[in-house]
């Protein structure tokens, strides 16, 4: 049995994400949890003729049932940005939501892969880690901040500058974190290799860093990215399933992870990032989660400058998350 729980399943991300997961045949049970509207979402999805069973879990009294025996837990629960807000402005509300959901997960499915979408990801991931540490069940290999949307956007935006590139096959490694200038696309490592002018590099980098703001502005108060996030979240969740139960090897994707010394490569990236505790970089996924964390490699001078600027911000974001649980 492969159970996937989506927490916040009735939301703007939760609904299309659940739809995409319903199409995946590695999943046998899709458990949808929210504080509102989730019975309707589950009833609707349950008519789709794929093998998985869909169940609805409404309200905190039913959270245990949603989580019990889950193999993967995806968390898009929380409030999204409105124009003029930063992701850090969401901390006040979302930190508590993520803490409470993580507390339940640490009790009812301590071995699940935890995929964190709720913003600010730079801080919500350390929150989940601290909750699991307190419960004595933390495994850094099983915790992921979902930064896939940055990678998805980067591939697309690069292909708009050079239409000869197919965005599906264009790989951009995006390192750092998931907010503004902590998002660092490594255009110097683009695969296939491209020669962009410095002006193009700076414009592309800015667009990738602030892609979320484009959507927030266009939605004009009605929220942030939901459909592209559902696409990105499903892609990452399916990669975890392919690696952990599908037996697929060699899956490498950027994700915001704990650079714990217990994971191969963690110490290398720690050294490359002036001792960041969490960092988004390429990770290889295996049956137990993070199999290997990859070095950020050789950066251009421009990328080195971006990294130096991002590091204090990343450290402060992590500290906020850690203090929220331990202070
Ligand atoms: P939304 O408001 O449309 O949906 C959020 C859902 O969470 C709602 O259905 C709400 O009822 C539910 N919820 C709230 N508190 C809950 C709780 N305690 N338990 C269970 N469910 C709860 O918002 P959205 O557009 O889906 O965005 C959700 C989050 O994802 C936001 O924090 C947003 O900033 C973030 N996000 C992250 C990325 C990323 O790249 N990581 C991308 C887009 C959005
Ligand atoms: C995004 O990158 O689209 C999300 O983090 C949502 C946001 O607030 O921009």
Automatic annotation (TrEMBL):
SUPFAM superfamilies (alphabetical): LDH C-terminal domain-like (SSF56327), NAD(P)-binding Rossmann-fold domains (SSF51735)
Recorded catalytic activity of this chain's protein: (S)-malate + NAD(+) = oxaloacetate + NADH + H(+)
A GO MF label: L-malate dehydrogenase (NAD+) activity
Keyword Nuclease: no
Keyword Oxidoreductase tagged: yes
Gene Ontology BP terms: carboxylic acid metabolic process; tricarboxylic acid cycle
Gene3D superfamilies assigned: Lactate dehydrogenase/glycoside hydrolase, family 4, C-terminal (3.90.110.10), NAD(P)-binding Rossmann-like Domain (3.40.50.720)
Active site per database record: 178 (proton acceptor)
Domain Lactate/malate dehydrogenase N-terminal positions: 2-145
GO cellular component: cytoplasm
EC assignment: 1.1.1.37
Residues holding NAD(+): 8-14, 34, 94, 117-119, 229
Binding site for substrate: 81, 87, 119, 153
Assigned keywords, A-Z: NAD, Oxidoreductase, Tricarboxylic acid cycle
Coiled coil spans: none
InterPro entries: L-lactate/malate_DH, Lactate/malate_DH_C, Lactate/malate_DH_N, Lactate_DH/Glyco_Ohase_4_C, Malate_DH_type1, NAD(P)-bd_dom_sf
Stretches assigned to the Lactate/malate dehydrogenase C-terminal domain: 148-324
Family: Belongs to the LDH/MDH superfamily. MDH type 1 family.
PANTHER family with a match to the protein in the record: MALATE AND LACTATE DEHYDROGENASE (PTHR11540), MALATE DEHYDROGENASE, MITOCHONDRIAL (PTHR11540:SF16)
Subunit description: Homodimer.
Protein name (Swiss-Prot/TrEMBL): malate dehydrogenase
Species of the source: Basidiobolus meristosporus CBS 931.73
